Amino acid sequence: MKKYNYILIAFVLLFSISINDAMSQRMRHSSPSRGGGSRGASRSPSINGGASRSANRPQTQQYNKPTQQHTGNTNSKDRNRNTQQKPSTADQKNRASQEHNNRSQGNTQQKADRSNNNNNNRSGNNTNINNSRTNVNVNVNNNVHVRHSNHYYNGHRGYHSYHYHAYHPYYYGPRWHPVGFFVAAMATTAIIISLNNQPYYYDYGVYYVEADGGYNAVPPPTNIIVNTLPEGMETLKLNDDTFYYFGGAFYTKSGDDYQVIDAPDGAVIKNLPDGAEEQEISGQIYVVYHNTYYQPLLQDGENLYQVVSMEATDSP
After folding, report:
1. Rounded to whole angstroms, how far apart are CA atoms 161 and 234?
2. Sign for the pseudo-dihedral over CA of 21, 24, 28, 29
3. What number of other Cβ atoms are within 10 A of residue 249's Cβ?
4. Strand pairing of 277-281 and 138-140?
5. pLDDT tens per residue across span 203-235
6. Which residues lie closer than 8 Å to 160 by C-beta, 6 or more apart?
7. Where are the domains of the chain?
8. From its phi and psi, is residue 240 left (phi > 0), alpha (psi between -120 and 50) or beta?
9. CA 53, CA 42: separation in Å to the nearest integer?
10. Spatial strand order in the sheet of 206-211
11. What predicted TM-score, i.e. pTM, was given to this entire model?
C-alpha cells in the first residue's frame, strides 16, 4: 500500500514540475514584449515555432507613422489629380455656354457676310436709274430717236413734255401672266380662237399657244378678235377715236367684240405690265414693251406713259 502511495506522490511531483517549466517558458517568451526591456542578441525560439525578432526592429508606433504620412500624401495627390483632370459641373456648363455663344456669333456673322455679299453682287450687276429699284437694266439705244410730230393729240400739238419717272410693273392679278410664262394645264375659262390657222387660247387678257407639256404665253396677235375684256381695262380717248387697253395690248371695238390693234401713236396710258425694259435714247429714258416705245410724263400730278414713234438714226 505504501508502495502505491509513493508512486502517486512521485507522479504528482513530476506533473507539477512539468507545469512549472511550461509556465516559466511562456513567461520568459512574453515578458520582454510587455515589459519593453532590451533583448539579447539571441533568444530561444517561440513556442509557436516563429522566427526570432531582430533587436533593431522599430516599434509598431514608429513604423506606422511613415505609413500614415505616405498614405496622406497619396490621397492629397489623388485629390489634386482629380481636381485638375475632372472639371466641375459648373465649369462644364460655362464652357458649353461659351462654345454655344461662339458658334451662334459665328453663324450670325457668316449670315451677315453672306447677305452683304449677295446685296453687293446684286447691286453691282445692274445699272439702276433709281435707287429704290433693283434688277432693272438700262440699255443705251443709239439706233433710234424720237420722231418729232406736229400732230395734235387731244388738242395738244406734238407729244407731251418728257418727265422721267421710274418704271414699276403693274400687277394685274394672279390670272394674268407675262409673255413667256408657261402653264402645264389650261384654265377651264379659256376660249380657243383661231387666226391665220393658228389656234390661240385666250384667258383673262392673256394669249397662249401649245408647247411641249403645256402652254406658253405670247404677245397679243394683231387683228385677233375676242368677245370680252377683263375687268380693269382702260378706256382711252384720242382725238375722235376710242381705244381700250389692258395688259399691254390695245383694242378697238369691232361690233360687240374687241380687236387687237397696234399701239396708236400718241395714246396715253396709266400702267405698263411686267416684261418692259428701260432704254436710254438721246440721253433720256424710255420704256419699251414689245417693240412699242413709251415716253414717261407727268400730267395733273399723275405719272403716265405716252406712245411715241421712233425712227432710225442716220448712219455716220
Report:
1. 22
2. positive
3. 24
4. parallel
5. 999 999 999 999 999 999 999 999 999 999 999
6. 153, 268, 295, 297, 299, 306
7. 136-170+221-312
8. alpha
9. 9
10. 182-183, 214-218, 206-211, 198-203, 191-195
11. 0.58
